[in-house]
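Second attempt. The first submission of Suppressor protein SRP40-like had a stray character pasted in from the spreadsheet, which I only caught after the job came back as garbage. Lesson logged: always re-copy from the clean sequence file. Corrected sequence (156 aa) follows.
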Amino acid sequence: MANAQMKSVAALFLFLNFCMYAIVLGIGGWAVNKAIDNGFTIGPGFELPAHFSPVYFPMGNAATGFFVTFAMLAGVAGVASVIAGINHIRSWHAGSLPSAASIAGIAWTLTLLAMGFACKEIELEVRNARLRTMEAFIIILTVTQLFYIAAIHGGA
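This time the job returned cleanly.
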């Protein structure tokens, strides 16, 4: 009975994580698009600014570029985790657990890294509402992804 309960808990976390990773990817895509459109223009006769950063994002602070980059990587790994998780939930046997658990672990570590940059971005303070939303989702995803990993291991 506990095995079936863990399957439904894992499915709930899987659905929740998919929705949040999709939102993170959407906001991250907006941030990257805005950075590309409004970034530095370097051409003939132009010099690099004194404190040029290749991950410059005009809407945040010094940590924004790193945060958005790693949040996008975590989002892609999270969606891959959902794909492997759906396969595992469908079959729910020990043979499908290693692939689901390994990509879930990778997604969690990337989300944990993005959470570190989110905390730094919060500390530096200058950011807009979309970035604050993305920070909140990354921090929540750090916990829910860990709970998902525990749920799929608990059902094994």
